[in-house]
Amino acid sequence: MNEKDLVYFCKLVEIGNYTTTAAYFEVTQPTISMAIKRLAKKFDDPLIIQKNRKSKLLLTNAGELLYQKAKILIQDIASIDYDVKHASDKKIRLAFSGEAGSSYIPDVIQKFFQAGLTHLLDTHIERSADAFSDLTNGKVDVAIYSWMVKINDPDYFIHNLHKTELVIITSLDDSLKDVHELSAAQLRNKRFIARERGFLTRECLEQEAKLGNFTPNIIYTATTMKLMIDLVKRNVGIALAMESSIKDVPGIHIVRLQPGQKLWAYMQIAMRKSFVPNKYQREGIEILRHFKPEK
User: Cα separation of 166 and 160, whole Å?
Assistant: First the structure.
């Protein structure tokens, strides 16, 4: 059994087609077939059952277990490969979302500055979903992000930083300017300014729309939080935002969702337990592992 056979097997399970899987890896279809046959022989089980070429691929019990364990193994191998190749790196790759990063990155940089370690930080901004995905794939070492549920996963060191409410923001001229609480259904005919999919506020807006049984009328997709807020101020539309992001912003009105329909954002910092910092990174990783934001 080798790593490449497991990689082919997992991708075949996910794609569900031998030809497409072969095209994905730019190999021939027999290459994929032979990999599956080697694994089937190794475990004395067919692993994958297909009645004919047009039928859906089905996993045996052994195949399902191999798929679940192989995904973990492949990820661990990739992590080991990176860590060993970069054993002399003098950088800590830190991804952060716009909302979470704007709240905590200044504190992080300050703590590294006080320790004389600012040279270690290699930071870049991403959507929360991408930040955590890159952490999982080993593309970054640490992620600071926000999401609508707490992520609790035994494969990561995760530290909860803050919890904030999602609220509706309007201009001071909007018809909701005197409303302080409403139901999701009352948003049905409103025009929205929103971020792209993958951003927390967009995902939460779509969740609220489901609660109100409507499709949000998104008239503009803002590339930044600042642009979204500025358009709301100009009465172009309303938006869903994290309260912590707009608490000191003048010229807007805040409307809360009714109890039972409120959504929350959880700010977290996370790193893979499989990540083993080298001697250059160790002190910086300890700062991040025990990071607490300034009051």
Answer: 17
Please, where in the chain does CATH 1.10.10.10 lie?
Answer: 3-85
Q: What pTM does this model have?
A: 0.69
**Does domain 164-264 correspond to CATH entry 3.40.50.720?**
no
CATH fold, domain 92-162+266-289, is D-Maltodextrin-Binding Protein; domain 2 (3.40.190)
pLDDT (tens place) for every residue of the chain, 295 residues total: 788 999 999 999 999 999 999 999 999 999 999 999 999 999 999 999 988 777 889 999 999 999 999 988 887 777 777 677 766 778 999 999 887 877 889 999 999 999 999 999 999 998 888 898 888 878 899 999 998 888 888 889 999 999 999 999 999 999 999 999 999 999 999 999 999 988 899 999 999 999 999 999 999 999 988 999 999 999 999 999 999 888 889 999 999 999 999 999 999 999 988 888 888 999 999 999 989 877 5
